[in-house]
Amino acid sequence: MTEKLHRKLFFIIIFLIPLNLGKHFIFRFSYVNGLLSDYLIPTLFVTDLLIVLLLLLWIIDLLINLKPIKLKSNYLSFLFLTLYLASVFLSISNSGRPEPGFYAYLRLILYVLFFIYVINNFDFKRDFKLFLTVVCASVIFQTILSILQWINQGSIFNNYLFFGEQPYTFSTQGIVRENLLGVSKVPPYGTFRHPNVLAAFMSVFLVFIAFTGIKSKVDRRLVAVAFVGGLSVLSISFSRFAIISFAFSVAGYFVISKLKKFGAVLCLLFVLLIILAGISLPAIPFNQFLIEDPSFSIRSDLIKATYKTMGENILFGAGLNNNLVQIKDLLLKNEFLRFIQPVHNIFLLVISETGMFALAFFVLFLYSVLYKLFSVSKYSDPIWKVLLLNFFQLLILGSFDHYFLTIHQTMLIFWLTLGISLKYNLNT
């Protein structure tokens, strides 16, 4: 009975990944340079409560049925993950503002526990069809809302109660605007905090839908509607990196299908080049282009500011969720940085906030997941190829944005993807 309850709750959580509904608690430490920062506001999301309930039901199930927790087969991954979490905890005591670091650490622990739950409970033969059906339903829901927002050029509801949709209009200060054939347009937000985050959600799950939908025996009409709708939303999001990561995955799927191991290695080399480009963005010799495009200019200047300050606390960092505090003085020198955002690179974010040891363990943890995927090497299995490409998408998108480590919806996608990847190794 308990097992059925937490399994059903798991699929509810998957559908509600985009949910942005939560209670915000604003404190003095939530301000940087006199401006309120979303990233420093402790927030209790409905999703967090659902995950807590999921874990409690799972623990009860384990105790009643005397089930063991499966860690042994992935012991290296868990070793590196544990060392990473320990390093992150040490950084909090070293931070200028420990409060935002502490609540961010609690969410990190919660989502890591969700990751462990996935490894222990997800079964590809039993669950994958339902999983993909729920993903399609979630994508379709966001598609409908996003297209209505695009037509309205603003939110559909004027409060946060509808799945956490934030109220906005074309004239809202700080709202994202893009140029479409000489006309200024506001890309859709869905129930996310930024069009780029909505685009990341679509980019990752569209790869799942595109290449596993038909063979998983999910209703073809549902798959077709989800794919066409999601692709439409991805297009009008104007999110360059999400679109590039999706295009890379589509091309990579056929390259791996044709060239097998050599194709997978080629994809890996391309991703490593992307990572290198991401951490060295200010040094790329396209200065005029970077200056004229705020998207690149902001990223470049945030990276410069992070490089200038990370040496002050290179061992243990400035403290989890303290990158903004670390670079706050340099933020004043760039008019585009008035939005107060962390550095748009997960690797630089980790080392700047939690230090070189945490970065080393974080990279080793990611490597251990990738190694497990490569050790299976089922080049003819669409699910294996999609999992590998989804992993690569995390690295590509993470090289030019921070949301996999800072925003609860994409954090959940990050840990879900890694959990399913490791579980695939156990199921084969």
Automatic annotation (TrEMBL):
Record keyword Metal-binding present: no
Bilayer-crossing regions: 9-27, 39-64, 76-96, 102-119, 131-151, 197-214, 226-256, 262-284, 346-370, 382-400
Membrane topology designation: Multi-pass membrane protein
Compartments reported by the entry: Membrane
GO cellular component, one term: membrane
Keywords of this entry: Membrane, Transmembrane, Transmembrane helix
Keyword Transmembrane helix in annotation: yes
Main location: membrane
Residue ranges constituting the O-antigen ligase-related domain according to the UniProt record: 226-363
Origin: domain of life: Bacteria
Name of protein: O-antigen ligase-related domain-containing protein
Upper lineage: Bacteria, Katanobacteria
